[in-house]
Known about the structure:
Order of helices and strands: HHHHHHHEEHEE
Strand order of the largest sheet: 1-2
Oligomer: single chain
Helix content: 40-55%
Number of strands: 4
Strand content: 5-15%
Largest sheet: 2 strands, antiparallel
Shape: globular
Number of helices: 8
Radius of gyration: 17 Å
Number of domains: 2
Amino acid sequence: MALIDTCAHMCQTKGVNFSEILQGPVLEGHRALYWIIVSRPFHNQYGLISTILKHCGSLSPEAVDEVRLACLQVGDQTLFSHIWNHPAYGALSGTDELVLGARSPTDRVEVTESMVDEIGAFVARFEITQFHKRMTISGGIVFEFIARGLSPCSPRGWGD
């Protein structure tokens, strides 16, 4: 991770936008985060991904789409949840940021997949911080998660 920090520092001293480098397509039309996610050798090891996210600033819509695609391809809800909870991902609306006093969600989603059948059944359990207050003020709460590695689920949210 020190290498990434050093690259960020060198870019800053040379006036190069490191975030643009990290979020631009680098190989076969994909961004660095995509390749890190699909090629990481160890599950539940998020140090490199966290370091990259730290230097990305807010992810562009294209980078968010690639994160979703990469996590979908590896079928890793735990990793997707880790990234979704990072401030760079931008999972919270501006209203939720004001209500919660934070840039990243403290909400959690746990997905349990059914291996009994092939129809893709799953159960998603949500823990929503200040649910009532957020619903009253903003009228909706949005979650994203991956179930069975088949598709990212992004319901419009409660109240929509």
